[in-house]
Amino acid sequence: MKITSLSLLLLLNVQITHAQSNFFKWSIALSGGPNFSKTDVVNGNWGRTYSGAIDFHYNPFITAGLEVQKGMIQGGDIATDPFNRQFVNQYAGVNLNVKLMLGAFINYEESNFWYHLKGLYLGTGLGVIKNNITDIVRYKPSWAAFDPGYGPYPGKDKSNSIWVPLNLGLNYYFKDKFEYIRYAININAQSNFTFGEGLDGYNDTPTRFQNYDPDTYNAYTIGVKYFFGNLGVYRKTL
User: Fold this and answer.
1) Secondary structure of residue 106 in the 3-state scheme
2) Is-contact 75 45, C-beta < 8 A?
3) How confident is the model over 147-181, as pLDDT tens digits?
4) Taking the CB of residue 183, how many other CB atoms lie within 10 A of it?
5) Which of 12, 104, 114, 212 gives a 20 to 30 Å CA spacing to 47?
6) Which domains does the chain carry?
7) How far is Cα 142 from Cα 156, in angstroms, rounded to an integer?
């Protein structure tokens, strides 16, 4: 009886040990890609976004982090915009964010398909963008179809805006020679909502331009992630 009980305890211990994995509690990431604007000008345009981030991992699938972002946002066209408006914003921003990954909610160990998608995530945050308008049309050109020379369009060339990013992305993991998850390829789509009228540099009255929606831009990035720091223990195999 004692031998049987001891055998069961040893088997249970092996199973529990097998079901646990170590993970690094910190990661850093660098990424970049195009963005597209949607602001007070009629048509958006493509720009570019570069990002650096550091995250703390409460577990492998729940993180809190800091993102620093820099890039160029542009929109409009002096020749084709109905109000002859265009802008270029060489912006920079910082936000605090959280991300929740699919692996925290599913039993990915029983499916190869879900195992490779365990790093799929949603996230949001709050931060500030520093707007730096380096090119903008404040006065309509003399050749405009109507109201030539109208202006100036009100707004500021330099301002700060509250920033709310919404993230949908995927981390695809790679292990090192010790079987720890050490690297990841990150693909991310980020919708960015700003509050205030600084992103495009225009602050016109709503009665003239029906300016009711927040200025936004979407960034589509790909990057690399490196895991480091103290080790934690997770209840599932990674």
Assistant:
1) coil
2) yes
3) 999 999 999 999 999 999 999 999 999 999 999 99
4) 15
5) 212
6) 23-234 (2.40.160.20)
7) 23
Phi, psi of 147 (to 5 degrees): 50, 50
What residues contact residue 149 under an 8 Å CB cut-off, 6+ apart?
139, 140, 141, 142
Which residues, in sequence order, are bridge partners of residue 217? 37, 192
Alpha carbons 190 and 182: distance in angstroms, whole number: 24
Contact 17, 10 (CB under 8 A): no
Joined tokens for residue 203: 């602050």
3-state secondary structure of 42: coil
Structure tokens at 16: 């529990």
Q: What is the pLDDT of residues 187-235, one digit of tens each?
A: 999 999 999 889 999 998 776 776 667 899 999 999 999 999 999 999 9
pLDDT, one tens digit per residue, over 39-71 is 989 899 999 999 999 999 999 999 999 999 999
Residue 26, token pair as written in the block: 């910190």
Q: Cα(181)–Cα(37) distance, rounded to whole angstroms?
A: 36
Contact 188, 135 (CB under 8 A): no
